[in-house]
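User: Design a sequence. Structure:
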């Protein structure tokens, strides 16, 4: 990339050149990080120009601080050239995108559905020619646009789209937190700094030039602007640039000094442009006329343009640099800024939404009329997909409200929306403000729920559980059963994540039962199941058995019912419910809840022998939990992924993952996760053939005094405990554990416990009872339990061989080997082959490498969906990928599996 006039940036220009020139073959992203004025904008412009020269379609926008609260303002400007092609998007994506731009009416779309639509729009455009998305000052974009941009930037690796964005240091946000490659712009070296200064320092003496060099610290914008400020200064340079003054303040002071020299009409127009949320020239001139009290013509901007502060044409006004806007605002008093907003509100007669916003920023002190309109406007922000704008509207509305109770309610509503964003810090701040108001009893209860909701049941403090139950009772008395159910589900989750004891668990169930008529509410069912997964299992199972799954359309209802089934140990029903919820959440783009659904399925899929699916769920679930700011689910998914890794034979990696998760879980007393730590460790040791270590790890699950004890998570370890016990010489101890669980099984109809006990009874039995127990176990309905059935076949086949019934053993051992190979249970497949060799049969290995050994988890997921007959577009919609990314993955998958077409996938991929 050649960029005449840019000094000292050869390495940076080279990095941008490489990114742009790789676009036809491979997408990519880059974040330019630097302080104000460091040269980000000039590099961004150079990258855009080089992309045009290279034949890319360039989409550009710049963040504007005044627009930061207007939902999707930046995204609309960025995508404007592509919007005519939006009709090619899937209908749900097109509606989501066009509704946030105000072009269509409809319910508020999920933010991630909007982001997926953006990705699809860019990917479709890239089929014609590669696309470069170039964004300056990302930190000033509205947060919904930043979220969408970060979503896209993480997913363009296989699409001919490059995303380049500049961000001012000290402004964290979704784009910076997305884990993208970064280019940190530092100050220019001395030689380059002097070269830049030479161009702008005409008329300045040596001392002034050296002072500027010391103050600028290699900042190019300072090297250009400070000489002009010095030449125009009427005060000594030492006062204009005092020692140790922060650089950004120096620059803003320089800009402010230049603005002060302009005529009054020009200053009025510039101030209106600085506070306006759009850049339309007619609107700015009209509002400037209101501010000035007289007509303001377009030539009023000539002086500002001549001074290099802004550019304008017949339609738009653009500040040359965000610091110019900052300088304009700094140069004016608060009274003048309020007046400029009031002037804009006056001219926006046909735009009540924006008019209310500017009115809200034009007044000091309470104003209930504006407060009410601002609260009403937050619904528009939600419909347009901007939760952050809705929160600001509610918070500002509360500031303008005279009634303390109404003020508190508005702050609580803002906090609810902040929870949806995953912003614990914002929730805490809003709740603190609300606590200083006169809240009603119901609002006090709602505050308690909001304080609870981010804890997600951590830690399982019995006192807090009882307190939440008391608040739920008060909510019932105030005729708000909906809030009561929310509170009780929160209390139940505390009991699940970290055991709060039988009294607290019983109290949750007792209070929940007081909600007459709510028995079929999914929250009611889930609260019982999660609080008392053993004692309430039979009642929960009865309720679930009456649910016609195919008739439940609500994704969250399916999620909660699936949670209940998972809690009581019914993986078949849980998998079916959660799978349906997953599909609907994907369609709606609700990735925060989707991460929960993916994670909850993993252990169920492990039990049912669908390990490919479990691995894909773990990979995607953890990524989504991280992206949506849910650390508990992030830890949980890591542990469940460790179980898959352990079962597939990578013990070292599984033990390391379990240790990492244990460090995070133990400090927060997360009993559920600590149980999963021992499961992962036990699975790893048993896969490695180290049965004594496996038994020691798994045995902790069954000791009520151990922090790893969990009422139902222990069920998943029963088979493994029995297998390890036989090899480690701990048969009697394991038999005692099984005897205790036989008592538990009289209370709970948990299918997980039932099938695990079938295996454990037979494996631990004396010879005279073993065959009867093996045959009884194999008569169970194990159609959906191939992993358990294969374990039984292996154990029984081995028992038959040891009792010299070789011919009978072979059929069982062959069936077990085949199932293990399909599932990917390498250690157990090898055990089956060894048993077959011991019968005198040469056990053939799998025909070539198994798919799970050659493909990544995401590739497996794509291959499975393609094998089911889904198109690239349909796969992309499910997995939040572009269709080109799906095609690129399939292009790499075929040679790995030694196939040449989609039709051959079914022969190599296990499709559930």
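Assistant: Done.
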């Amino acid at each position: 990339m050649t960029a005449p006039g840019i000094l000292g940036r050869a390495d940076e220009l080279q990095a941008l050149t490489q990114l742009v020139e790789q676009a036809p073959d491979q997408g990519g992203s880059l974040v330019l990080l630097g302080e104000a004025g460091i040269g980000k904008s000039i590099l961004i412009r150079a990258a855009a120009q080089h992309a045009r020269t290279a034949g890319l379609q360039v989409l550009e926008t710049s963040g504007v601080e005044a627009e930061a609260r207007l939902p999707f303002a930046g995204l609309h400007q960025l995508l404007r050239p592509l919007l005519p092609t939006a009709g090619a998007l899937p209908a749900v994506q097109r509606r989501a995108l066009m509704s946030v731009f105000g072009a269509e009416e409809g319910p508020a779309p999920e933010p991630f559905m909007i982001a997926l639509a953006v990705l699809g729009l860019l990917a479709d455009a890239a089929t014609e020619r590669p696309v470069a998305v170039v964004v300056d000052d990302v930190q000033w974009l509205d947060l919904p646009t930043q979220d969408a941009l970060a979503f896209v930037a993480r997913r363009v690796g296989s699409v001919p789209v490059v995303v380049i964005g500049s961000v001012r240091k000290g402004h964290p946000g979704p784009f910076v937190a997305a884990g993208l490659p970064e280019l940190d712009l530092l100050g220019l070296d001395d030689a380059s700094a002097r070269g830049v200064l030479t161009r702008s320092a005409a008329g300045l003496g040596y001392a002034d030039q050296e002072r500027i060099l010391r103050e600028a610290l290699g900042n190019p914008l300072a090297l250009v602007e400070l000489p002009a400020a010095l030449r125009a200064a009427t005060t000594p340079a030492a006062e204009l640039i005092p020692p140790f003054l922060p650089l950004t303040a120096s620059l803003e002071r320089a800009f402010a000094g230049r603005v002060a020299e302009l005529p009054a009409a020009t200053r009025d127009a510039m101030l209106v442009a600085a506070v306006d949320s759009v850049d339309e020239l007619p609107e700015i001139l009209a509002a400037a006329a209101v501010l000035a009290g007289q007509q303001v013509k377009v030539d009023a901007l000539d002086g500002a343009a001549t001074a290099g502060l802004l550019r304008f044409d017949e339609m738009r006004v653009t500040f040359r640099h965000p610091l110019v806007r900052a300088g304009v605002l700094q140069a004016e008093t608060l009274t003048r800024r309020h007046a400029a907003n009031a002037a804009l509100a006056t001219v926006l007669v046909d735009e009540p939404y924006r008019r209310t916003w500017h009115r809200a920023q034009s007044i000091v002190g309470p104003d209930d009329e504006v407060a009410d309109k601002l609260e009403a406007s937050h619904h528009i922000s939600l419909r347009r997909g901007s939760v952050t704008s809705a929160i600001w509207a509610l918070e500002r509305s509360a500031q303008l409200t005279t009634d303390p109770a109404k003020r508190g309610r508005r702050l609580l509503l803002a906090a609810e929306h902040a929870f949806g964003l995953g912003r614990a810090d914002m929730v805490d701040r809003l709740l603190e403000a609300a606590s200083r108001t006169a809240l009603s009893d119901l609002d006090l209860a709602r505050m308690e729920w909001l304080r609870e909701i981010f804890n997600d049941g951590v830690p399982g403090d019995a006192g807090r559980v009882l307190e939440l139950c008391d608040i739920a009772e008060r909510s019932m008395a105030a005729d708000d059963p909906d809030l009561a159910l929310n509170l009780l589900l929160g209390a139940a989750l505390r009991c699940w994540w970290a055991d709060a004891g039988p009294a607290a668990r019983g109290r949750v169930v007792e209070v929940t039962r007081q909600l007459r008529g709510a028995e079929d509410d999914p929250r009611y069912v889930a609260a019982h199941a999660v609080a008392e997964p053993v004692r309430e299992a039979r009642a929960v199972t009865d309720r679930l058995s009456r649910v016609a799954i195919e008739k439940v359309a609500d994704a969250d209802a399916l999620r909660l019912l699936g949670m209940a089934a998972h809690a009581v140990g019914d993986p078949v029903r849980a998998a079916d419910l959660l799978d349906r919820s997953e599909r609907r959440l994907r369609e709606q783009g609700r990735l925060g809840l989707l991460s929960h659904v993916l994670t909850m399925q993993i252990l169920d899929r492990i039990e049912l022998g669908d390990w490919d699916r479990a691995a894909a769920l773990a990979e995607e679930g953890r990524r989504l939990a991280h992206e949506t700011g849910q650390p508990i689910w992030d830890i949980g998914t890591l542990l469940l992924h460790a179980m898959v890794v352990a079962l597939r034979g990578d013990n070292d990696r599984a033990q390391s993952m379990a240790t990492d998760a244990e460090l995070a879980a133990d400090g927060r007393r997360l009993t559920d996760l600590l149980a999963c730590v021992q499961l992962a460790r036990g699975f790893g040791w048993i896969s490695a053939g180290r049965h004594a270590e496996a038994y020691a790890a798994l045995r902790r699950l069954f000791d009520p005094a151990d922090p790893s004890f969990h009422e139902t998570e222990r069920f998943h370890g029963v088979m493994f405990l029995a297998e390890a016990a036989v090899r480690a010489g701990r048969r009697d101890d394991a038999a005692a554990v099984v005897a205790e669980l036989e008592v538990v099984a009289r209370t709970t109809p948990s299918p997980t416990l039932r099938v695990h006990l079938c295996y454990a009874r037979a494996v631990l039995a004396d010879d005279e009872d073993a065959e009867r127990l093996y045959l009884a176990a194999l008569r169970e309905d194990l159609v959906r339990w191939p992993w358990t059935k294969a374990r039984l076949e292996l154990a029984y086949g081995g028992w038959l061989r040891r009792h010299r019934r070789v011919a009978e053993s072979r059929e069982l051992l062959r069936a077990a080997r085949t199932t293990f190979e399909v599932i990917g249970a390498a250690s157990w497949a090898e055990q089956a082959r060894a048993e077959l060799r011991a019968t005198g049969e040469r056990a053939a290995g799998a025909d070539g490498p198994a798919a799970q050994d050659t493909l990544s988890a995401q590739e497996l997921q794509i291959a499975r969906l393609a094998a089911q007959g889904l198109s690239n577009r349909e796969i992309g919609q499910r997995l939040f990928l572009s269709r080109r990314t799906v095609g690129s993955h399939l292009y790499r998958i075929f040679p790995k599996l030694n196939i040449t077409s989609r039709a051959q996938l079914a022969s190599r991929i296990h499709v559930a």
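The first strand starts at residue 28 and ends at 34. Confidence is low (pLDDT under 50) at residues 234-248.
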